[in-house]
Amino acid sequence: MKKLFIILAVMAVVFGCTEQQHPLLRQVWGLIEVNPESAKVVLAKVHTNSLSEQDKAEYGLLKTILISKTHGMYMVYGMIDNDSLISASIAYYNQHGDEWHRGRAYFYRGAIRMSKLGNMPGAVKDFKVAEIISEDADDEELKNLVYNSLHYVNIIIDNQSQTLKYAHKWLDSSIELKDSMKILRGLFNCATAYADMDQKDSAYTYMSKCLQLKKYASQDLLANIYSIMALIYEEKGEFAKAEEYIKKWEENGGYVNVYFPSSDGGWMETHSNLGHLTLARIRKAQRQYEKAIILAEAEVGMAGNDQKTRMKGLELLSELYELTGRQEQALEAGRKVKAYNDSMRYVNQTIQMADWQQKFDEVQQTKDFYRRTSWMQGLIIALIAMVALGIVIGMWWHRRKVRKLSFRLDEDTRRISELRTNIEQLEKSGAENGQEMERMKKELENRMERISGTLLIGTQMFSQLQQRQCIAEATAKEQQCLVDYFTQLRPKRWQEWNRQYSNLSTAQYVFLIMQDDLHYDDEAIANALNVKRTSVRSMRSRIKSRER
Q1: Is residue 112 within 8 Å of 86, Cβ to Cβ?
Q2: Are 106 and 126 a contacting pair, CB within 8 Å?
């Protein structure tokens, strides 16, 4: 009885020491969504020195989430000096934690790293890991957060295809969550992504859907919707409708708050004034250049303007200055636009290099895994290489013999013609050179005998084909004799083939003789060559690929 009492006392002490921490962390999770400020107060009461490893990881995750909740995802940065706390949480969750905590830890570390443009590759990597975790676990809430951030990151680095991809993913996720406000923003993101890619019809379709849900829009978002609609109508040349939406844009504040990373790693509030730019373009189209310049200069000079909108304004000003003969001002505006484009290209190259290194590491890890687990892989590759090399050498040797035979036949023909000419000249001149005459006649006889042998073999081969006999056992020399005989027998058809095809092999010419001259069907060709009909079709397709 006494021993039992001691055990119960020890358990009471242990649970009494830890109970103070666990309820506080649970309480923070309960408040983090509904009342982040209260959750922050509760978390401050936690004594980190007495936490277990699991609780420390959870504490680091909660603190990072609360900073983003209480200061805003894109204004938090500067509140955190480094990512060591959340990195420690990730290290724990990679070994012991569940995917729910692990995915959020990667996401919020990516959010912190996104605060500094110089560490954008690190943020992208963390978001991509969180994306894989969320999709594997089908965690819709986390997917929504990750897709939104990846969409935003790709806007910053001006990666239009990825921006569109994640705009669609975020929209699909928002539909799954049945959140009307997020659905509206998802539609707007898709529309702006299409607009940036000059796909105006698609942008108009999504903007029309946005207008159907405008009752869920904030004043800023509604102003942005109106400005994009004005831009679309302006580019369509429907200036009346464009000006109608510009008026609506002005009635809703005339600007949209946007947050962009500053050069010191923080975030600054900026404004998007696409409505002013759109109106300036309309005045330009109406040849009211001075009014257009006033509007564009006002927009470019407005404090806190976002960089992309400012560059669009400078591009427009450069065109307007050109039209009004202000060459120096046009060149200055063009230089500023070029400097901005060059800086964005540098950012893109940095991101692309980081992505390339990550992919390279993944491929290298896969190769190392297969090398460790399968020593047979190298042996198989070596055998395949040897077989391929043998095939290549065999084909080369066969072609070499065929070319040599063909060259010899051509040489014999040419030499026979020369010998006949020389003999005729000697006979006409009456020159007494019997020894030379005898030598030439002997050479002529030998060469004609050799050609006759070639043509004889070719004649026999052709006769076999006419009688539908199998020629599968024919040697390369015999096949070449058949082709040489056919060139003499059907010179016009031979010339036609040379015009129609390029670089056919001897076997392919034999195939054409059977198909085009002797009118063999596929079955007859297969029987003559002792192959399957699929091989006949394959040979036909290879010959067709050689057509000029």
Answers
A1: yes
A2: yes
When pLDDT is cut at 50, 70 and 90, the band that residue 76 belongs to is: very low
The one-letter amino acid at 163: T
Tokens encoding 66: 């609360």
Q: How far is CA 7 from CA 17, 378, 460, in A?
A: 16, 62, 107
Radius of gyration of the chain from Cα atoms? 41
**Beta-strand pair 267-272/256-261:** antiparallel
Angle at 480 between CA 405 and CA 518, to 5 degrees: 160
Percent of the chain residues past pLDDT 90, beyond the cut: 8
d(Cα 160, Cα 151) in Å, to the nearest integer? 10
HSE on the CB side for 493, CA within 13 Å? 16
CA angle 158, 175, 135 (to 5 degrees): 70
Residue 103 has pLDDT above 70, yes or no: yes
Arithmetic mean of pLDDT, 21-35: 79
Rounded Cα distance, 238 and 432, in Å: 101
Report the range of poorest mean pLDDT among 67-71, 240-244, 318-322: 67-71
Q: Tell me, what DSSP letter sits at residue 547?
A: B
Distance CA 386, CA 389 (A): 5
Contact 515, 497 (CB under 8 A): no
Which residue's entry shows tokens 């397709």?
541
Neighbours of 196 (CB within 10 A): 15
Q: Distance between CA 115 and CA 152 in Å, rounded? A: 12
pLDDT class of 301 with cuts at 50, 70, 90: low
CA–CA gap between residue 304 and residue 306 (Å, rounded) = 6
CA–CA separation, 403 and 506 (whole Å): 10
Which three-class secondary structure state does DSSP give residue 246? helix
Residues in the chain: 548
Buried b (16+ CB within 10 A) or exposed e, 435-447: eeeeebeeebeeb
Q: Give the residue from 259, 257, 261 showing the smallest Cα distance to 272.
A: 257
Query: Any idea which residue has 């006033």 for tokens?
Result: 294
Apex CA 34: angle with CA 33 and CA 35, to 5°? Answer: 100
CA distance 329 to 264: 30
78 has pLDDT over 60: no
Spatial separation of the C-alpha atoms in residues 72 and 351, rounded to whole Å = 25
- Domain boundaries, given as residue ranges, for the chain: 15-146, 405-545
Give the pLDDT of residue 105.
93
